[in-house]
Amino acid sequence: MAHKQNFSMAIKSLVTGGAGFIGAHVTNELIKMGHDVVVLDDLSGGFEENVNPQAKFVKGSILDYALVEQLFAEYKFDYVYHLAAYAAEGLSHFIKRFNYNNNLIGSVNLINQAILHKIKCFVFTSSIAVYGAGKPPLREDMIPVPEDPYGIAKLAVEMELRVSHEMFGLNYVVFRPHNVYGEYQNLGDRYRNVVGIFMNQLMQGKELSVFGDGMQTRAFSYIGDIAPNIANCVNIPAAYNQVINVGADKDYTVKELAHTVMEAMGIKGELRYLPARNEVMHAYSDHSKAKELFGDTANTTLLEGLQKMEAWAKKTGIKKSSKFENIEITEKLPSFWLED
Fold first, then answer.
1. Are the beta carbons of 35 and 11 closer than 8 angstroms?
2. pLDDT tens digits for 42-53?
3. Dihedral sign from CA coordinates of 98, 104, 105, 111
4. Alpha-carbon distance 306 to 304, whole Å?
5. Cis peptide preceding 137, ω within 30 of 0
6. Of these four, 60, 144, 213, 332, which has the most CB atoms within 10 Å of its CB?
7. Res 320 pLDDT > 90
């Protein structure tokens, strides 16, 4: 379908990372809502085919300040949905400069322009990683103590949005999603998104790689339950200038996840236990605030969500697992990540 005409007359939204996983789903929701959407993505973790054809796609980086300035000046955005990030908590220890450039400095580039152009609301996807090893269920009023550079960068952006609101009146909504899975995940990413990793390994007839004993618990959250609320939050004044946990309520062990992925895909696989890595053992959130703001939204069961993703994954096919080329620190890097 051709891009809508009268771009200047419609609600205009910028989605960074819109060729990536969550960003592509949020773009779809915004287009359903009637927004004209510009997607900015450098395709480092996303794919152009994920971008809704009704959106205008711009290949570029949030680190390119001249490009960011140009887009804000040209399109006069009403809203910014900032979903671009390199979201690998475990790997972030070993790529500190890359992490802070992409996840903090790039975000500040967008916040500067949002202030200068007086946009109505800046929507930011943070992460459960800001909580660190807090005792679950994790609540928004807990003092966040992140345990990895990725979580530190996300928390810094949250704090920058708060002070930008206090100083300049920039409205924002911060979401802290956790363990989101679904269609458009990068199946070839070996460092993050355990569901995609497991599906890709199963399709190749490989063992499923489990760090430690597999008893870590997470509440795996289907993207279709989350993207509509992220998109629609700008229409809910009570959500403005709030930090909101979003995701599923029921937690599972990684071992339980592995067996449920096998069930969804109809493929029997074996588990390969790897040395434990430095990670939070138990992480899941309280969603009382989200329910108060958005009401009872869809709550897809793990098996149902995996079955939806499975159909897409088999159609997409096996993806070669690519290595991150610019590791800055190799000490204590899990050897599994170095394998071909």
1. yes
2. 999 899 999 999
3. positive
4. 5
5. yes
6. 144
7. no
Burial of 327 (0-12, 13-18, 19+ CB in 10 A): middle
Enter the DSSP assignment of 192: S
* pTM reported for the whole predicted model: 0.94
Measured in degrees and rounded to the nearest 5, phi and psi for residue 193 equal: 65, 75
C-beta separation of 122 from 172 below 8 A: yes
Buried b (16+ CB within 10 A) or exposed e, 141-167: eeebebbbbbbbbbbbbbebbeebbee
Q: ∠294-237-18 over CA atoms, to 5°? A: 70
> How much is the pLDDT for 45?
87
Q: Kindly report, residue by residue over 269-307, the tens digit of the pLDDT.
A: 999 999 998 888 998 999 999 999 999 888 899 999 999
- Pairing label, strands 252-253, 217-218: antiparallel
- pLDDT, one tens digit per residue, over 190-215 is 888 899 999 999 999 999 999 999 99
Contacts of 171 (CB under 8 A, 6+ apart): 120, 121, 122, 165, 240, 241
In this structure, are residues 38 and 30 in contact, taking their beta carbons and an 8 Å threshold?
no
